[in-house]
Design brief:
Blueprint: E1 2-13, E2 16-27, E3 31-35, H1 42-49, E4 57-62, H2 70-73, E5 76-79, H3 91-99, H4 108-114, H5 130-143, E6 148-152, H6 160-173, E7 179-183, H7 187-193, E8 196-201, E9 204-209, H8 211-218, E10 221-227, E11 232-235, H9 240-249, E12 254-261, H10 264-272
Parallel strand pairs: 3-7, 3-8, 5-6, 6-7
Antiparallel strand pairs: 1-2, 1-4, 8-9, 10-11, 10-12
Helix pairs in contact: 3-5, 4-5
Amino acid sequence: MNVIRFNNVKKAYGAIQALRGVSFEVAAGEIVALLGPNGAGKTTAIEILLGLRSSDSGEVLVDGKTPQSLLARSQMAATPQNTGFPDALTVREIVAFAARHYAAARDVDATLAAFELSDLAGKRLGGLSGGQQRRVALALAFVTNTPLVLLDEPSTGLDVESRRRLWEQLRASVDAHRTVLFTTHYLEEAEALATRIIVIDRGELRFDGTPAAFRDTFGSRRVEYVASSGERVVVTPPDTDAYVRELVLAEGAFRDLHVTQTSFEEIFLELTGAAS
């Protein structure tokens, strides 16, 4: 069953074409990374799904309903890229407040524990660090226990350990009945978490498939070694195994041979031609 349907969606801001006929579908139980350089249209797509913006044309459905409908909104929760909280409320108060708006919400204490907020439960939000406030924002999305969670740059402001704890929480939260769509500038995060990758560049869909297919389609392998002259040689032959065999049979002196796979970040930069 498709939880999200984006069909030929277009959105412009004056002369700027944010989305140029983008189409994709997301099924229940998927963890989908929506990738693209700055200005690619990712946040616009998230805001349209949340019903915060309307598309200029095309069809957008969340669980078969328009995003602006109350039924659709009751089925999804989100952590936007930028958040702001009332300084006077405590962590427990704001998480409990969010939970009361959803009939099947998770236990507040369990959610606080999952996001390492138990020790901060009585602390006022105005006294939290940026990373701690980010964890609160994520807890608000997951305490709802909705079938769909939308996360815009979820790990921004988190340290390495907190980011990896978030990954564990995301994996644990997704099952056949729950779906996560997230944007990220951390390509390692997309590779570690996503069951599927969608790449948008300049408002157009550039790739839609599994992380393995992303590597197979755009990746390559490099051969690096030091030649007898001392020169460092780096080549990307079409067949690295054949290249290494020919190198050995040539009986030329070389050392420090390495065969490496291009990283997700390198593939992304080559595909989009922009810094991540």
